[in-house]
Amino acid sequence: MERYVRIVEGILAYQFGRAAARAMLDGEVEVRVCRGRPREIFVDGRRLCTIRASDGLASLAPEGARRLHEVTEFPEHRVVCSEEWADAVRRGRDLFCEYAVEGWEELRPGDECLVVTEDDELLAVGRARLSGWEVRYFEDGVAVRVRRGLG
Predict the structure, then answer these.
(1) Which residues contact 94 (CB under 8 A, 6 or more apart)?
(2) pLDDT tens readout for residues 46-70
(3) Fold classification of 78-149 (topology level)
């Protein structure tokens, strides 16, 4: 089982950085394996993330989003949502470009990201459809495909 924990730590380190990966896996880690590959990761009995079969990267669950939010500083891994659309995102609606205020400069399309308010309140978790710098310039389309609202 330790082998799978190291694999998951490597995946999380690739996506979010080594320090964030170690902090996110702080606790009793359980890895559920399917066909010899890690699939679901639980920390202290709560699902942290699922490893996607399509690309081998992690899709954060609400617990994983909360832990990532706690261990990273603003604006890392974040897209900022305007206050007028915050309730909709909190309920699980996608973040559209017209309501996206700014994004982390290093964010790339397809990256896991956190959607936050301007006060860094966590609203949702999803996948970026645009890079961080593009968020400011586009006015139409989806900026973040929200997987789960955290309201």
Answers:
(1) 126, 142, 144, 145, 146
(2) 999 999 999 999 999 999 999 999 9
(3) 2.30.130
Q: Rounded CA gap, 9 and 32, in Å?
A: 14
132 vs 18: CA distance, rounded Å: 21
Residue 1 pLDDT grade (very low, low, confident, very high; cuts 50, 70, 90)? low
At residue 76, what is the residue type? Answer: E
Sorted by where each begins, the domain ranges of the chain are 2-71, 78-149
**Two domains, one topology: 2-71 and 78-149:** no
CATH superfamily of 2-71: ArcTGT, C2 domain (3.10.450.90)
- Residue holding tokens 């890079």? 131
